[in-house]
Amino acid sequence: MEINVLNLSGKETGAKVQLPESVFGVEPNDHAIYLDVKQFLANQRQGTHKSKQRNEIAGSTRKLHKQKGTGGARAGSIKSPLFNGGGRVFGPQPRDYSFKLNKKLKSLARKSALSYKAQDNNILVLEDISFDAIKTKTYVKMVADLNVTDVKTLLVLASANENVYLSSRNLKKTKVITADQLNTYDVLNAGKLLLTEGAVKTLEEALAK
Prior knowledge:
CATH topology of the largest domain: Ribosomal Protein L4, Chain: A
Order of helices and strands: EEHHHEHEHEHEH
CATH architecture of the largest domain: 3-Layer(aba) Sandwich
Strand order of the largest sheet: 2-1-3-6-4-5
Number of helices: 7
Distance between the termini: 18 Å
Number of domains: 2
Number of strands: 6
CATH superfamily of the largest domain: Ribosomal protein L4/L1
Strand content: 5-15%
Organism: Mucilaginibacter rigui
Subunit structure: Part of the 50S ribosomal subunit.
Radius of gyration: 27 Å
Protein name: Large ribosomal subunit protein uL4
Family: Belongs to the universal ribosomal protein uL4 family.
InterPro entries: Ribosomal_uL4 (IPR002136), Ribosomal_uL4-like (IPR013005), Ribosomal_uL4_dom_sf (IPR023574)
Largest sheet: 6 strands, mixed
């Protein structure tokens, strides 16, 4: 798949980039995408939720009232889950939600997500970006010139560029990452995928195996 390279003003530079079929033209595997996104979201969870069981509640151990003759149910402890302030039955405990996925499956998931974006013509290739200073106004102008102001965008750089990243950080509908940070969730979550020429080469080297 051949695509025109745009400059920061949204105009064609005359150059073209070939998006490799082995990365942007595979048969998408929805189950691989599901597993990779599930793992990504699971890894974001802290797993620090905790509720107290009855053995962890601070309170008296006295019997509340006599066993029989009250006309009510038997009650032996104020810590019972039946009472307000008592322990919780089978409450949440700290745990690790992360799980392992094979590298080949994760690679297939990323290629599947990129292929979906290519099929829907939601990929723009830009010349390599470099800002001289940290200016959100410059990034906003670039997005406006590319006609993606009202769309969620994911800009993928070949290597880290602090000026570009900091210029975009306060904007709601945009995210900037490097090619080695690319993940299936971010690709699918974006309406438009903005790739620099260098990022395309990096992705081809990493995923076209």
